[in-house]
Amino acid sequence: MNTVNLDELKQLLAQTEPAKRKFAAAQFYRHRLGWLPHPLHGPNDKNVNAKARGKKPRRKGWKTWTANQVTDTLVAEWFADGAEDNVGIVVQAPHCIVDLDSKADNGESVRRWLGRQPHLAAVPRERTAGGAHLHFTCSDLPPITKNGEPYNSALVQELTANVTAEFFFGGQNLVVAPSLHVTGNTYEWEVGGSIPTVKWQELKQWFGFRLPDEAEPAQAHARRHPGRPRKEPPWWVRYRGDLRSVDLVAVVKILGLGAQVIDADQGKHSIECPWRSEHSNSEEPWRASDTSTTIFCKDDGMNFPAFKCLHAHCANRSLEHLLELAERHSPGVVDRNCKFERAWRPNQRSRDGRPRVPLPHIGRPDSVFAAEIGNVLGPKAVWFRKGPFVVMIRDEHEGESSRG
C-alpha cells in the first residue's frame, strides 16, 4: 500500500480516454495506495478567485473524511463524467509530502537543487508546474501545534534564494497528478517506487523544517549582508561526461523515441516527444515525418546538442529536461554515451590523447604536480630546453656532487 507502481499507473492512464484519466488516477490512489481522493475546483473555474483555481476543495467537510466515506460511488460521481475538476488528496498521517517550489523559473531551480541531493533521488516524486512533490512516511512526526492549538497550514522553509519547501501533513489538501495547473502544465509522476519511512529529524536536516513553536536558529536573526544572492551551479555539473560529446541520438533511441535524420549537415533529427501525452494531438500516432520535435547534435566538440518541441506544453523544456528524463529511465545513460569526460579522474586523457594533470591548488602542492608531470614525461623524453641550454633531467640525491 506504500508503493507507487509507476509502470502500472502510466499504463492505466495510457489506456484510458483523456476525459476519464483523473477518474482512473483517483481510483488508483484509493485502491493501490489507500489515499483519500477528492475533487478540487478546476484551473479555469471562475466561481473561485484566481489564486484558488485548480486547488481549492469543492466539497465541504473534506478534512474529516475517512476511507469508509470516500466510496467508489462518490469517486465516480466526482470524476467519471470527464469533469474539469482537479484531483486532490486528503493527507493522512503518517503520509506526508514536501512540496518544492521555484515558481519564478518554472521549477528549474528545484530540479537543479534535487540534482545535488542524491539521497532524495529514489523518493517517489511528482513534477509540478513550479517544482516537485516528494512523498514520505514519517514514523515519529510530533504534533504540529502553535500556542497549544492545532496548526492548519503547511510548514514553509526557504532552501536557497530561489527554492522554497512546504511540508504537508495529516488533514491537509494536496493537488496530485494528473491535475492541470492554471499555467496549463499537467502534474505528472516522474519517480515511482516504495515511499520511504523517515524520521522527523531527517526531514528537519534535509529541508530545515521547524515546528511553529520552535525558536528560530540564531543565524536566522543575523543581519543579512547586502550583495549578490548565492549563484546556483549550472545544471550540467551533475554529469561527469562532457555533454559536447554526448551521442544524443543513441540516448533518445534508448528511450524508444526514434531518431529520423532531417538535415545531416546540421545534425538535425526528428524524434517523438517524450511528453507527447500532453500535446493537443496526443491521440494521433507519431510519424517520423513529424518535425515538431527535434534534436540538434552536430559533433563539433564546441557546443551542447539541443532539444526543441514546438508544442505549447513543452515551451520551457530543453536539453536539460530530456537528459533528466533519460537518467530516470536508465541511470548513468548520459555519461555512458559521452565520448569524453568533463570531470577529472586519474589516468584520464584529453580529446587529443594527452594525459590530463590537475594544476596545483590548496591541498595539492607544487611538488605533487611536478612529480606527476615527471611521471608523464619521463618515459617519453630525455632532453629538454631550459632557456638557451639543452639539458637532461635526472635524480640527484643529497650529498651527490654535480658533474659538468
- Structural class designation: alpha+beta
Give the CA-based shape: globular
Report helical residue fraction. 10-25%
* First-last Cα distance: 84 Å
The total tally of domains equals 2
Q: Give the low-pLDDT segments.
A: 218-222
- Beta-strand portion reads 15-25%
- SSE string: EHHEHEEHEEEEEEEEEEHHHEEEEHHHEE
Total count of strands: 20
Largest sheet: 7 strands, mixed
Helix count equals 10
Radius of gyration: 28 Å
Question: What would a concise description of this structure say?
Answer:
The protein has 404 residues and is α+β, with helices and mostly antiparallel strands. It is built from ten helices and 20 strands.
Task: Describe what you observe in this structure.
Strands 4, 5, 6, 9, 10, 12 and 14 form a seven-stranded mixed sheet that branches. It is built from ten helices and 20 strands. It folds into two domains: 3-213; 239-336, no CATH class. With 404 residues, it is an alpha+beta fold. The protein is 21% helix and 19% strand. The longest helix has 12 residues, at 21-32.
